[in-house]
User: What shape does this take?
Amino acid sequence: MKKGKTQYVRLKCSVCSHINYTTVRGTKAGAEKLALSKFCRTCKMHTDHNETKIK
Assistant: This one.
């Protein structure tokens, strides 16, 4: 079985812009950015976290 390419991304809180999580995702042509509901330690509530690239 052939493995596809993976990309490391950061998840940034949409409310306070604090980077809380790092995750791995597969790369596909035309794939949308990740948007997950995660717990933010700074806001102390569940908020949407959006994908940002690791520099």
